[in-house]
UniProtKB/TrEMBL annotation:
GO molecular function, one term: electron-transferring-flavoprotein dehydrogenase activity
InterPro entries the UniProt entry points to: FAD/NAD-bd_sf, FAD/NAD-binding_dom
Record-annotated FAD/NAD(P)-binding domain positions: 19-295
Species, as recorded: Sesamum indicum (Oriental sesame)
Gene Ontology, cellular component aspect: cytoplasm
Protein name: Apoptosis-inducing factor homolog B
Matching Pfam families: Pyr_redox_2
Function comment: Putative FAD-dependent oxidoreductase.
Length: 373
């Protein structure tokens, strides 16, 4: 299936609807497509048939049924737009080229390809992946996690709480965990992990090229030997911009692979091309809720432009101060706000029980509870 169309975009009172093409169906792309589908002729280009709530993926590894709610078919919220199931491989001033050779014409383009994270095309395949990873964890007596950023910390917390009998080792090359936030939050997180018997090794790395999961032996940069039945790599992923390097946007990509945007979230030098979410060079922590703020600002600005409004009426996006909540298992979390740092049940109440899954589903116009298909 290359394309899905629930209903064609009709003509609006003032003329034909503008064609808005959104490339990338992640946190930002799904929300902007949903937000504009009744004001424009919207096409969403994504290689998979579903939207995945990324921060919920770690719990899905320990509880596969959790993914039933956190994996959402694009067609369930995109009821008045088109879905092209393909990878975008190039763009021109007016068209996007897909891997199958399809040309999709646009008046306005939104790039929301985030980070490069290859996932299965179908929801059922992704659910099977979670089941397989769950079985790996369940059958292992020891687990190695490489990377002490939010992904590695949250996965260690999920496993330590759900499988307290497992030996969990977390190796991080930095001098402290969660280096993107303050040392107080990092120290509290380290203490919490140790209280759950997670062994944390800082200032070390693991050369996975010279390790074999078949023999369960891993060697750290300091020469320590770690025996683990399975391992998970939770280090940073490259930006999803490689496909842009030979396009009209090749000079708009910075050295980190991020698109340079102005205060209105338009790609610098282009009036009709926006970029939102993790792929932008906005100077702030890359977080899902900020990507959603990008989507809402860009949607507002696109509505202004499509109505022929003046640029001065467009909204500006202002980078937000640090507000971070990192879940630690089912009940606890560590939170850093501008004026305070908290750990335990109070910040856990904010995020950890449901990981905002119900809230995201509601935002997309869906039942926040589990719905059978």
């Amino acid at each position: 299936m290359e394309a899905y169309q629930q209903s064609p975009a009709p003509e609006m009172a003032g003329g034909v609807w503008k064609r808005v093409v959104v490339v990338g169906g992640g946190v930002a792309g799904s929300l902007i497509a949903k937000s504009l589908q009744f004001q424009a002729d919207v096409t969403l280009i994504d290689p998979k048939e579903y939207f995945e709530i990324p921060w919920a993926s770690l719990r899905a590894k320990v509880e596969p049924t959790f993914a039933e709610r956190s994996l959402i078919y694009h067609k369930d919220y995109l009821t008045n737009g088109r879905l092209v199931l393909s990878k975008a491989i190039s763009i021109s001033n007016s068209q996007v080229l897909t891997a199958e050779g399809r040309l999709v014409t646009y008046d306005y383009l939104v790039i929301a390809t985030g980070h490069d994270d290859p996932l299965p095309k179908t929801k059922s395949e992704r659910l099977k992946e979670y089941q397989t990873e769950h079985e790996r964890i369940r059958s292992a007596s020891s687990v190695l996690i490489v990377g002490g950023g939010p992904t590695g910390v949250e996965l260690a917390g999920e496993i330590a709480v759900d499988f307290p009998d497992k030996k969990v080792v977390l190796v991080h090359e930095g001098s402290r965990l969660l280096e993107f936030i303050g040392p107080k939050a990092a120290d509290k997180t380290l203490e919490w992990l140790k209280s759950k018997r997670v062994e944390v090794k800082l200032r070390q790395s693991v050369d996975l090229n010279n390790s074999s999961e078949g023999n369960n032996t891993f060697i750290t940069s300091s020469g320590e030997i770690i025996n683990a039945d399975c391992h998970f790599v939770c280090t940073g992923r490259p930006s999803g911009s490689a496909w842009l390097h030979e396009t009209i946007l090749k000079n708009s990509v910075d050295g980190l692979g991020r698109l340079k945007v102005d205060e209105n979230l338009r790609v610098k030098g282009f009036k009709n091309i926006f970029a939102i979410g993790d792929i932008t060079d906005v100077r702030e922590i890359k977080q899902g809720y900020l990507a959603q703020k990008h989507a809402l600002i860009a949607a507002k600005n696109l509505k202004v432009m499509m109505r022929g409004g003046k640029e001065k009426k467009m909204a500006s996006y202002k980078p937000h101060s640090i507000k971070v909540v990192v879940s630690l298992g089912r009940q606890d979390a560590v939170a850093q706000f501008p004026l305070t740092t908290l750990i335990g049940l109070v910040p856990g109440f904010i995020k950890s029980k449901d990981l905002f899954v119900g809230k995201i589903r509601k935002q997309l116009g869906l039942d926040p509870r589990l719905v059978d298909y």
